[in-house]
């Protein structure tokens, strides 16, 4: 009978334990990737508002709306890849986004990527 090294027995449990945190990081980074243009547009809006260029602000708001829709579609595509999130993972992703990618929060919440109960 072949002996299985002791550490191989615990390896799957180690992977499962690390899975949640790495999955949260991967999902939040992918969501941020979906909204990078939106982040840039929002920075441009802020800059135009500071310069009080109302015409440019209006054009940028329209562009931001379009980018928001694209970001939501992108995130919806991600949800097909990752599947439904459980509530704990969903909340952790939201927490990560609030810290590292504020523009991703709204797109993530509006994407319909609802957690399973």
List descriptors:
mainly alpha, 117 residues, 82% helix, elongated, 5 helices
Word description of this protein:
The structure is a single chain. The chain is mostly helical. It has a domain at 30-110. It has 5 helices and no strands. α1 packs across α5.
In a nutshell, what does this entry contain?
This protein is an all-alpha fold.
Helical run tally: 5
Helical content band: over 70%
Terminal Cα separation, in Å? 44 Å
Shape: elongated
What composes the largest sheet?
none
| Count of extended strands | 0
Sequence stretches where pLDDT stays below 50 over 5 or more residues: 5-19
The overall average pLDDT, rounded, is: 81
Radius of gyration: 20 Å
How is this fold's topology laid out?
Elements: H1 6-34, H2 36-50, H3 54-82, H4 87-100, H5 102-110
Helix pairs in contact: 1-3, 1-4, 1-5, 2-3, 3-5, 4-5
């Amino acid at each position: 009978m072949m002996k299985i090294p002791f550490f191989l027995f615990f390896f799957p449990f180690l992977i499962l334990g690390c899975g949640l945190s790495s999955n949260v990081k991967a999902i939040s980074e992918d969501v941020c990737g979906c909204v990078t243009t939106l982040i840039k547009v929002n920075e441009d809006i802020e800059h135009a508002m500071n310069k009080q260029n109302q015409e440019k602000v209006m054009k940028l708001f329209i562009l931001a709306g379009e980018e928001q829709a694209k970001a939501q579609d992108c995130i919806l595509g991600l949800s097909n890849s990752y599947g439904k999130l459980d509530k704990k993972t969903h909340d952790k992703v939201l927490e990560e986004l609030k810290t590292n990618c504020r523009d991703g929060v709204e797109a993530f919440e509006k994407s319909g990527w609802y957690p399973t109960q």
